[in-house]
Hints:
Helices cover 34% and strands 28% of the residues. The protein has a 6-stranded mixed beta sheet. It starts with a strand and ends with a strand.
Amino acid sequence: MIAAQIIAARGVCKSVSTEEAELSILENVNVDLAAGEVLAIVGPSGSGKSTLLGVLAGLDSATSGSVMLLDQPLHELDEDGRAAVRAGSVGFVFQSFQLLPGLSALENVMLPLELANIADARSRAMQQLVSVGLEHRLGHLPAQLSGGEQQRVAVARAFVSTPKVLFADEPTGNLDRATGDKIIDLMFELRAEHNTALVLVTHDQMLAARCDRVLSMYDGELR
């Protein structure tokens, strides 16, 4: 049985205009991702990894080329259209956690469900926080949590809507090795449970070695 295609990107280029010249960030990039597959994107800082992640996820648009995400042509859609593709089907985990400081752990995890008008948002969010070992931190604000706990909340929020694909940009970058390893174990466990495809931008070679495939990026090109 052939796995469904989650991402099919062809000839993706991204450039920005500066006062001096046109700056090329991505150059003729091709990426495929199958359902349930784990892909690592590695490379030096400034090579275009995070920009590529944003384009593949529809957070940013390519200058040229095509990006199919979940069979939807992101390159033909405006910002609202790309947001509609992401809703309920795409999750994110960032290095900086991106939790809302005025909301509790439970409320942060409930948020994507509430935005999607899902009725049992509270019970689903509680269940997801239990699965990441934070049942005793439901009412705590992000500032009351350790870095590892905040990232667990972020992982719970990313998986609570059972996304088909999760994009993670240096998910362990702000964590010590032991805590980072626990977060990665957690992401792989949830991936196995939900058959979620993962795209991981990382400098961590140990993490990359655990992935199904590794793509190396240098100066905006994949090698």
